[in-house]
Write a structure and sequence with these properties.
By secondary structure, the protein is of the alpha+beta class. It has a domain at 15-92: NADH Oxidase (3-Layer(aba) Sandwich), CATH 3.40.109.10. The protein is 37% helix and 17% strand. It has helices spanning 3-9, 23-34, 53-61, 81-86, 96-112, 125-131, 161-164; strands spanning 45-50, 73-80, 116-120, 138-147. The longest helix is centred in the middle third of the chain and has 17 residues, at 96-112. The relative contact order is 0.24. Bound molecules: flavin mononucleotide. Flavin mononucleotide is lined by residues 11-12, 14, 65, 118-122, 156.
């Protein structure tokens, strides 16, 4: 798939088919994630792939905006603050950018494999942390739902390039 077609064609999917994902597919998506750039190449990320339908149901039950969604897979993107601390780097929020880079790689690779996805910022971090038993120093920052799409959403509009680009010559 052409990269620009993937960038334009990827949509946030909020309705999925029942079909499950196999673990090889998840490995491919995580492989794409770990090739993302990160500040000082710290790679301070950690991924929890949840395929268990009961756990997914529980996450949905405390995530506003996901109540009516039915993904067969949720990947929790966490910051590994232990890595950041060990490298003596600042503990600001900057490392969340690294996770965002990984997230886009994941969503584009999912799309290229015929899957839909949606990144979620709106979820209960403490509840997810407890539910998946994250270790000390690991902080969930995003969820990504993934599955076979059961909808073709209209592309939400984009600001015109003339509004957002200024070329300085
Ligand atoms: C940082 C971030 C947080 C988001 N959080 C949510 C969310 O909590 N729930 C949701 O349904 N979509 C969420 N989205 C998806 C956006 O709504 C979506 O990307 C946007 O409307 C554009 O649609 P598109 O992804 O189909 O191009 C989030 C996107 C980003 C980048």
């Amino acid at each position: 798939m052409d990269l620009f077609d993937a960038i334009e064609g990827r949509r946030s999917i909020r309705k999925y088919k029942e079909e499950s994902l196999d673990e090889n597919t998840i490995m491919k998506i995580i492989e794409a994630a770990i090739w993302a750039p990160s500040a000082s190449n710290l790679q301070p990320w950690h991924f929890t792939a949840i395929l268990n339908r009961d756990i997914i149901k529980r996450i949905r039950s405390f995530s506003p905006g996901m109540f009516r969604e039915n993904p067969p897979c949720i990947i929790v993107l966490s910051l590994n603050k232990n890595i950041i601390k060990a490298q003596g780097e600042g503990m600001g929020n900057d490392n969340v950018f690294d996770l965002a880079m990984a997230a886009q790689n994941m969503m584009l690779s999912a799309y290229s494999l015929g899957l839909g996805s949606c990144i979620k910022l709106s979820f209960n971090r403490e509840a997810v942390k407890k539910l998946i038993d994250l270790k000390e120093g690991f902080e969930p920052e995003f969820l990504i739902t993934i599955g076979y799409p059961d909808e073709i959403p209209e592309p939400p509009g984009r600001r015109d390039i003339k509004e957002v680009l200024n070329v300085v010559r």
